[in-house]
Amino acid sequence: MSTFSDDFPQPSPASQSVPPADWTDWEAANRANWDERVPVHVGGAFYDVPAFVAGAEVLRDFELAEVGDVAGKRLLHLQCHIGLDTLSWARRGAQVTGLDFSEPALVEAAQLAKQLGVDSARFVASDVYGAVEALGGETFDVVYTGMGALNWLPDLTRWARTVAALVRPGGFAYLSEFHPIAELVAADGRTVVEDYFDRAPAVLDTPGSYADRDATMTATRTVQWRHGIGDVVSALAASGLHLDFLHEHAHGHFFLPPGPRLPLVYSLRASRPS
Known about the structure:
Blueprint: E1 16-17, H1 26-43, H2 49-53, H3 61-67, E2 74-78, H4 84-91, E3 95-100, H5 103-116, E4 122-125, H6 131-134, E5 140-145, H7 156-166, E6 167-178, E7 202-205, E8 221-224, H8 229-238, E9 242-249, E10 265-271
Parallel strand pairs: 2-3, 2-5, 3-4, 5-6
Antiparallel strand pairs: 1-7, 6-10, 7-8, 9-10
């Protein structure tokens, strides 16, 4: 099984797999890991929070183009972490709600919103599957999910049903995510080393964080899943959403060596009929 590297789909040589039977406490293990990442990410160079506060853009050009104008719209960001993407949409005029299962991350997100003067931003503690209940049945114009999110969820059918329930009639869900093909190849960009169709949980013990491999952490065990693009699209279609587009991109947070290109990122939008 590929040693997924949370926010980056390339294998991490420092990761060690542990017995698959140990994956059943996946949510508690993942939450503990993400809770410990918060100070590493807030204080580190990878997220560069001071630059963000000063006005740096963290959303990708294709996301801005594909989501379009959000001024005056209600936008929900699932798995929002410390809220940089969430607050970037707020800067563009959206009324934002961020949802994440890590309460320490949401504390930082709320403090950052206050620092930026984004008084309308709201942050709610919940896992994705409990989002409908946590938000009291509210619906949104845009339900957004950024990169490095779906690999933390075991059940795409349940995820898609949740997303569909959160999109108001006439609204849409938007996803940008690492392409599953990108994690299958070795560093040479040519050699396929993993099985695209392997859907077994990957139970990993990985030191540090993708933002700082040398960070001191104790909750280093995580559980992750590989989801093919067909899995994602089929789950959304079955939920009643209508696929507007699926785009593949040859650029991302990392680059393969020169040569034949592979998709590194994909994005899609699925709408709910009015």
